[in-house]
Write a structure and sequence with these properties.
Length: 135
Amino acid sequence: MELFGDEHPNVTLVRANFAKITSGDVAGAMADWDRDGRYHAFDADGVESRDLSDVTDVVTAGQRLLEHHENEIIEARAIGEELVSLHLRVHATSRAGRTMTADYLIVLNVRSGKIRWACDFIDTTIQTFLDEAWS
């Protein structure tokens, strides 16, 4: 794993964006995205569960659905010159009181200093938890 000070600039951008999101700075986080940015979410079966073209909805979804959620970056890595992969761990409590800890993956495309798109990939543990939270 690269040290934070010596990492690829796109990884630094994505880490900074993640820090803004987790601190509640939605406007600051959105400033890191291309104005036509897109977010795609894939469920546990590999099916695109949502084409979340409004990135702001993605950023604020956890606040609306969950009593508590916290994400931590386990690993952030540059893949070539435009891709960044994030291995994340989520700790969450639904409004019904169910708790979950699970890992997931996000791949982001960064070009010219802006996040252009992101895709997240979850497993059955997260899928079941989210299905219950949305119902």
